[in-house]
Amino acid sequence: MTKPVTASKKPRKQHTPEFRQEALKLAERIGIAAAARELSLYESQLYTWRSKQQHQATSSERESEQAAEIARLKRQLAERDEELAM
Fold first, then answer.
1. Which of 43, 66, 70, 78 lies most in the core, judged by the most C-beta atoms within 10 Å?
2. Burial bucket for residue 9 (CB in 10 Å: 0-12, 13-18, 19+)
3. Which residue ranges traverse the bilayer (predicted)?
4. Does 6 fall in a domain?
5. Is residue 1's pLDDT more than 70?
6. Hey, what's the torsion of the CAs at 19, 22, 26, 27, to 10 degrees?
C-alpha cells in the first residue's frame, strides 16, 4: 500500500514580536474579529498571542512581588541580627 501524495505544505509565517504587539493593539481598538480580517490572520492567532502576553505580564508581576518580599525579609533578618548582637 502506498500513501497518497499530498500537496506540499505552505511555509508558516513567522510574525515579529513588534507585529504581534501592533496586532493586539489594533484588536483592542476594533475587536479581534475585525483585526483578524484586516490583517489576514486567524482569530485564534490573536487570542493565543493575547493569552501569552497576559501570562508574561502576570509572571513579571509575580517576580517583582517576590523580589520585594525577599528584600523585606532580608531587612527584617538584618534587624533581628542587630538586636541579637546587642
1. 43
2. exposed
3. none
4. no
5. no
6. 70
Residue-wise pLDDT for 56-67, tens only, equals 888 888 888 899
All three cell numbers of 44: 485564534
5 domain residue, yes or no: no
**Residue 25 Cα distances to 49, 53, 76, 79, 86, angstroms:** 11, 12, 43, 47, 58
Could you tell me if residue 10 is inside a domain?
no
Instruction: Report whether 26 contacts 38 (CB < 8 A).
Output: yes
Domain that holds residue 22: 17-85
Distance CA 49, CA 85 (A): 54
Q: pLDDT digits over 16-54, tens only?
A: 999 999 999 999 999 999 999 999 999 999 999 999 999
**Owner of C-alpha cell 517576590:** 66
